[in-house]
């Protein structure tokens, strides 16, 4: 596919990080392209008969106010394991949002009385509407999960989890990689940081990111086993890497989730993974990607339940 070079992004001066002027110029280019209220919010609120729906925050931006919602098992049992499912940290990654919703709508009932569920389908609603990786301040929420976070999206989720004071045993964070990573988001990042970007790899298929310092390979394997019934698993490149990182088992790489400020590091859960799927693949459809995200959740929950039994 075609992509712009790190030095051709239309905002900023090559080699110089952005200041307030450049960030304002970037924001002026953004446009609302779809409706969070229609495609996400109303579907979350429609689950009130199944879950306890909690508005854990609100974001106020120039394009409007956005309610932030979490779904909590209505029949909460303190003696059961608790699983956190998050989507839409990067709002443009559609299957993460819709996959979390699909699971909540069609499969979550199967786990009632077996696990406590916390589901946050869309952490970044402005990003969802503008099909964007960043928030309006040109901040990546998925690099901002740390104390004193400058991203309202990340801070709101952290505050909600802190207020609940619940031990979380498993966390799965639903993401995807699209061709726009190369045509827009990677060049924008390079321009914002005043650096040159040289990794243009986009794995074709589904893969997982684990935690470097808390690897759980059997857990990751269980998730992949569930997903491969729906879509294909990404193969390592000629350097045995995915997206520039060494493959630790087929379909899995590891990151230092806490150091990087990733959503996957927001809790101290033992069983943690981030999903990645490629909706622009010639071998998958957007609907398959949504189904793959829901299957990944089921695979993760099934593994936790087998350990409990």
Automatic annotation (TrEMBL):
PROSITE patterns (alphabetical): PEPTIDASE_M14
Domain of life of the source: Bacteria
Keywords on record: Hydrolase, Metal-binding, Zinc
Domain Peptidase M14 intervals: 32-289
CC cofactor: Zn(2+)
Keyword Metal-binding: yes
GO BP annotations listed: proteolysis
UniProt-recorded name of the protein: Peptidase
Organism from which the protein derives: Bowmanella pacifica
Taxonomic placement: Bacteria, Pseudomonadati, Pseudomonadota, Gammaproteobacteria, Alteromonadales
């Amino acid at each position: 596919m075609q992509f712009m070079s790190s030095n051709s992004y239309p905002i900023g001066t090559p080699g110089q990080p952005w200041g307030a002027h450049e960030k304002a110029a970037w924001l002026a280019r953004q446009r609302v392209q779809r409706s969070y209220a229609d495609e996400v919010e109303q579907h979350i609120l429609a689950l009130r008969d199944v879950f306890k729906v909690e508005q854990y925050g609100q974001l106020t931006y120039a394009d409007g106010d956005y309610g932030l919602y979490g779904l909590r098992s209505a029949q909460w049992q303190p003696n059961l394991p608790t699983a956190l499912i998050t989507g839409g940290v990067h709002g443009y990654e559609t299957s993460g949002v819709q996959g979390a919703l699909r699971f909540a709508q069609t499969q979550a009932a199967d786990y009632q009385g077996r696990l406590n569920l916390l589901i946050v389908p869309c952490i970044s609603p402005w990003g969802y509407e503008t099909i964007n990786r960043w928030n309006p301040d040109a901040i990546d929420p998925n690099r901002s999960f740390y104390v004193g976070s400058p991203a309202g999206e990340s801070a709101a989720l952290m505050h909600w989890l802190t207020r609940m004071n619940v031990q979380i045993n498993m966390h799965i964070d639903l993401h995807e990689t699209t061709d726009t990573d190369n045509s827009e988001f990677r060049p924008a990042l390079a321009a914002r940081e005043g650096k040159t970007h040289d990794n243009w790899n986009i794995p074709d298929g589904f893969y997982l990111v684990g935690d470097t310092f808390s690897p759980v390979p059997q857990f990751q394997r269980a998730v992949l086993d569930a997903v491969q019934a729906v879509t294909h698993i990404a193969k390592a490149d000629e350097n045995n890497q995915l997206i520039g990182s060494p493959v630790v088992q087929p379909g899995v790489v590891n990151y230092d989730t806490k150091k990087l400020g990733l959503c996957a590091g927001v809790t101290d859960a033992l069983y943690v993974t981030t999903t990645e799927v490629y909706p622009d693949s010639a071998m998958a459809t957007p609907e398959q990607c949504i189904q793959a995200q829901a299957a990944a959740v089921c695979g993760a929950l099934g593994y936790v339940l087998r350990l409990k039994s």
